[in-house]
Amino acid sequence: MLHRDFRCEFYFIRHGESASNATPGFAAGKNFDAPLTPLGVEQARLLGKRFQKEKIVFDRIYSSSLQRAVQTTDTMMDSMQCAHTSFTQVDAIIEQQVPGWRGVPMEEAFAPEPLAYMRGKGIDFVGPDNGESYRMVRRRMATWIENEVIYNNQFIAKYPSARIAIIGHGNATRCLFQYIMGFDSLLIDRIALDNTSISRFIFDSRGWSLVSMNDNSHLMDTGRDPNFDTRP
Q1: Order of strands across the sheet that contains 60-64
Q2: CATH topology of domain 7-220
Q3: What residues pair up with 200 in beta bridges, in sequence order?
Q4: What is the pLDDT of residues 63-94, one digit of tens each?
Q5: What are the structural domain ranges in the chain?
Q6: Cα 193 from Cα 199, distance rounded (Å)
């Protein structure tokens, strides 16, 4: 049995606040590779401080190749005092891409007629200009995690008991959760994943188990709102 003695703890982490997150009202941000805001950097710093305080050590760390995820990972690891530890940037776990919606106001993208069409198509709806459907995102996310970890004999032999951090994005991670948990696809849009929140899962001989979701308690340590503004 491939997984008889295997146990892997996954920490799925959303990136810190990006410039696109800070300018709401668009169906997709104008800059698909937007950097972190000062608030996003502070969120990532507090995330790393939490892991350091809890003495969390990761066997492997993966980041989306988009800069907001890479910056989150760099800042987190610096706060954990393991800045010299390497991590892997992964193109396969970037955010859902819909080029035709970049900079398009939500009221235009989700006008009554296109919205009705989207609802009819469900997870098979493909956005304009060669966008990705939820099903397409789920497939690439699931294919990556299966090939990299779950059905990777070399990984399992090297790390029979592992703890992994995966720093990614909101929609892409929700699609992966739908693959993991098998819930109705209508729930994909109803899962809250806040910036730098942690969602923990375990994969072992029994398969996948959910431990916690959207945990952003590290942002409470300041005694302020999790969305506090770091600007002077």
Answers
A1: 88-90, 60-64, 161-168, 7-14, 198-204, 207-215
A2: Rossmann fold (3.40.50)
A3: 11, 212
A4: 999 999 999 999 999 999 986 789 999 999 99
A5: 7-220
A6: 8
